[in-house]
Amino acid sequence: MKPTPGVGMPVDGGLTFQHQYSPLGEYALKIYNWALMPIITVICLFVLALLIWVVVRYNHRANPVASKTSHNTTIEIVWTVLPVLILVAIAFPSIDLIAKQYKPAPKEALTIKVTGNQWFWTYGYPDNGDFEVVSMMLNVPGQPEVNPGTREVGTKPWDGPSHLEVDNRLVVPAGEPIRLQITAADVIHSFAVPSLWFKLDAVPGRINEKVLFVEKPGVYYGQCSELCGAKHGFMPIALEALPRDKYDQWVLTHPGGVIDGKDAAEAAAAPAATPAVATVPVDSPLAASTGAAE
Ligand SMILES: [Cu+2]
């Protein structure tokens, strides 16, 4: 699948967050835009105004005899209670967001296993026959080869930005909750996709789990976000969300890939389940973009 420019990736001169494509991301960005930023802005302007007032009105020249006041009960109550109220107001949506982020995936959700390695990602599909996909950053033309044997970025029509595009993407179904289980094989990495409000550490010997929900099909880019060694900056994440039927087709292009316990041949024998499985030419963008032609 060809990525849409500006969607799921950083843009030139971009400020603040990327546009969000998950329900949690939209909710979190709303809190940021409509609660946190306004409160921060008002407080900053208020403190700045107080500072300017003190500097102008109470400097040595304008106010030669300083006040001896050391106590004012009213002011002290106000400057204690008001910040407390502001913090409580912020706490409510914040704690709600944390609770939502910790909510486990529903029982029937698809499980995908992400493993961080020095310096690439592997994606395992235990619910679809337990095949594994190795994902390497594409080499950049004119620059030292990062992953020998991997092609250069821009040589296929569906390639996204350099330093973010990979040979085999993490393919997931769109529009359904996915249980992402994240770990690492060597050192600590961090799996992060900004436009999906997703970041979770990949720690050796430990499995971290979080729900991923991609609202619509598309390609979304991220990067390893924990300093993990020399090529930390060269292990991007390219996540391709497909409609369920296309995802099923993609699974069946892999040796050992199964949907509901059926492999490609069995699924073809039962055409109602996956009607288009035999009609995906190996060179089609669907098959190729998702690794089948690599
Ligand atoms: Cu890393």
UniProtKB/TrEMBL annotation:
Pfam families: COX2, COX2_TM. Residues 107-253 form the Cytochrome oxidase subunit II copper A binding domain. It comes from the Bacteria. It comes from Novosphingobium organovorum. Keywords: Copper, Electron transport, Membrane, Metal-binding, Respiratory chain, Translocase, Transmembrane, Transmembrane helix, Transport. It is found in: Cell membrane; Membrane. Its cofactor is Cu cation. Belongs to the cytochrome c oxidase subunit 2 family. Residues 9-105 form the Cytochrome oxidase subunit II transmembrane region profile domain. Its EC number is 7.1.1.9. It catalyses: 4 Fe(II)-[cytochrome c] + O2 + 8 H(+)(in) = 4 Fe(III)-[cytochrome c] + 2 H2O + 4 H(+)(out). It is an enzyme of class 7 (translocase). Subunits I and II form the functional core of the enzyme complex. Electrons originating in cytochrome c are transferred via heme a and Cu(A) to the binuclear center formed by heme a3 and Cu(B). This is Cytochrome c oxidase subunit 2. InterPro entries: CcO_II (IPR045187), CcO_II-like_C (IPR002429), Copper_CuA (IPR001505), Cupredoxin (IPR008972), Cyt_c_oxidase_su2 (IPR014222), Cyt_c_oxidase_su2_TM_dom (IPR011759), Cyt_c_oxidase_su2_TM_sf (IPR036257). The chain crosses the membrane at residues 31-56, 77-95. Binds a copper A center. It is a multi-pass membrane protein.
